[in-house]
Write a structure and sequence with these properties.
single chain; 222 residues; 10 helices
């Protein structure tokens, strides 16, 4: 049990690394949470500092989720201290638990007063190691929505909602066997709801028509 607590806490701490805040301090000497949307995430770095630093932030945030799943989970050496009734092997279940802990750490980081980002990139890094095909399809949906609407938040929300739908369609309509489908689906739905919750202010701005858009031209974003 202590080993499980250890990997969960360590995954949370990895997820808690405030990448956007660190980059904001190093590049501009600012707390990114005091500018733009006030969110400590890659999208706000994109808006305030520039697309290169925003992309770097997103990659590093995704890496946090991947590290929790690929590296930290391997530090779990004991037997699971409860009955594993899922179709996953014990190690995969530990990976899922560590991935979720990293996402929670990103959203409520202990290193920045529990005020972090929205969890999209970290969840991406975690989930792409578990359901690779489904996440690649969701990334495609994200890119299409952002390109057409110029709203990163709308793309993130659409992608988050699409993941459980993609799982359901692939498993039940196309007959693709997804290992552990009945177990992973509730996890994905819960994470999607968490992402929607962290984007509640964006949803309000989208409905009111005053959400920030981005521009793909050399001109400044709107």
């Amino acid at each position: 049990m202590l080993n499980l607590i250890f990997v969960v806490i360590l995954s949370y701490l990895v997820g808690s690394i405030p990448t956007s805040i660190i980059i904001g301090k190093l590049v501009k000497g600012i707390d990114i949470r005091n500018y733009g949307s006030g969110n400590a995430g890659g999208t706000n770095v994109f808006r305030v500092i520039g697309w290169k630093w925003g992309l770097l932030t997103i990659i590093l945030d995704a890496l946090k989720g991947a590290i929790a799943v690929v590296v930290v989970a391997r530090m779990y050496l004991d037997n699971i201290p409860f009955n594993n009734v899922t179709p996953f092997d014990d190690f995969t279940l530990i990976q899922i638990i560590c991935g979720v802990a990293a996402v929670i750490g990103h959203i409520w980081t202990v290193f920045a007063g529990f005020k972090g980002g929205k969890g999209i990139a970290t969840a991406l890094g975690f989930l792409i190691t578990i359901i690779t095909v489904d996440m690649l399809l969701a990334i495609g949906i994200f890119l299409i929505v952002v390109y057409l609407s110029r709203y990163i938040s709308l793309g993130s929300l659409t992608a988050a909602i699409s993941v459980p739908i993609i799982l359901i369609v692939r498993e039940n309509v196309f007959g693709v066997h997804i290992p552990g489908y009945n177990t992973i689906l509730p996890f994905i739905i819960a994470l999607s709801l968490l992402v929607i919750f962290t984007h509640r202010k964006n949803i309000d701005r989208l409905l009111k028509g005053n959400e920030n858009q981005i521009s793909f031209s050399k001109n400044k974003k709107k």
